[in-house]
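Tutorial handout. Part one gives the primary structure; part two gives the three-dimensional structure as tokens.
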Amino acid sequence: MDQRSRPSTPLATLTKALAQISRARSTDDVVATIRACARSLIGCEGISVVLKEGSLCHYVEEDAIGPLWKGQKFPASACISGWTMIHRKTAIIPDVTVDDRIPREIYSNTFVRAVAMAPVRIDNPIAAIGAYWSQPYTPDAWEVETLEALADAAATALETSEVIAALKTEQVRLPGSEGTSTAEDLSEAIGAVAGIAAVPTILDVVLRMTGMGFAAVARVTETRWVACQVLDPVGFGLKPGDELPIESTLCNEIRSHRQTIVFDDAVEDAQYCDHHTPRIYGLRSYISEPIILADGAFWGTLCAIDPTPAKVNNPEVLGAFRLFAELIAHHLDAGVRLRATTASLERERELAELREQFIAVLGHDLRNPIAALEAGTTRLLKEGWTSRSPLVLKLMKASLSRMTGLVENVMDLARARMGGGITLVVTADDLTTTLQHAVDEMRIAHPGREIAAAFDLPAIIPVDHLRLAQMLSNLLSNAITHGSERMPVSITATVIEDELNICVVNGGRPIPPQQFDKLFLPFKRGEGRAGSQGLGLGLYIASQIAQAHDGRIDVRSDTNETSFTFRMPLKS
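Part two.
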């Protein structure tokens, strides 16, 4: 009987299921695979998959003759899955009505009368798999062993999925790099080969030229052999993404010596007649050519195999394989170069945006103190020296100091855009004086607007006073620009339960809901009055200053008023 038409035995079915679980690359894949196979393998009438979430057991999936608890969460101390994970051993309950570990009220509305529950990862359980029967029943040893085998495979797959999830947040190596490849590397390798339009044609030509029944492009590392693209008319059984144990392949040897391995018939070949690879896979003919990248790195192989002898050890076939391998390597190199070029362009785009923002910051944040200086100069020229002149000069000098500070520290904002965050210079000074100056500066710059201020603060608060003045100025400028001219802008500053609160409120039209997510993005302008100017940096800069102080800015807007509230915990 042909092997491919032979019916599957229970052992073969279990082996396939375990292999499928082990290949899963996410928690959802693991759960779905267990749901699809566990019940039929064990012969039970229901299964459930339970994930540990802190002190809770989350019943995430089930396959049963009746509803169980999918989607529900129970305390670990109140369910048998929790007992299994806490005690790190399989629980076998022939009759749920006479076992104290079973919460009977939870089972009363289900068909369940017998349970076997196995923990996933014995040393530190992260999940559990349960099997259920509708009558009192003591499962056979093979049924328990099958359940535990599924749990062991799930443990490995879930750990792998955790690693993959962690790797996706880190920078991964390019496909040509040596060493142990991560799952992300291998996924990129499969995608890179799939993106080479010539590979299917190459594999087709290889089989037509050699008369063999299977050809593949494989990524080969120190620890893994992964099929990236295959042509399999004889049904060898591999598809893209499938793996073979690296030690069982001849490609592992090719990775070491980087030479072609070829034989027409393993039975008659002196070097490979007793080799384990032909015996394991039933091979008679074989050819594998190393794929070497431009930088000299070994990437993988182009190989072909067949269970019957074939004439492949000749100059024509060897020359063609060498040419095909070089062509694949050329495409892989081109892909690496393209990704590097794309990354370089992205960096240049970020730098261009940063330069634009640098100029915009100077133009935006210097506008208010410049306006204050202009207003003060105009008043002095118009009124001459009066009793208010010393106050005007004092405010003008303070504005000059703030302008100097902004110019000196503008690179901090550039660092914020590049991920470094704004640097603070914390001093223990009178914050009321700092905030009052920012308000006075805004009143001079906008003499026609009413700005009410009320401060109730301790004498000394350790913050970056220059930065908070900058933040308040931006919030006030936003309120004046987008608020109603007929309604006052108010600012309050208080300390409530060791939290500093600075709130700026204006009347006028509410902020549209679709704009909330964009309020603190750079270069995003709201819908202010016609003719209003600004580059949309004020709220972004304010939010960065708040974050640098371990604080936040909360926004509330309705038909009555709009408020921006800075909240910062004060360290005792």
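Part three, for discussion. Confidence is low (pLDDT under 50) at residues 1-9, 167-181, 528-535. The first strand starts at residue 46 and ends at 53.
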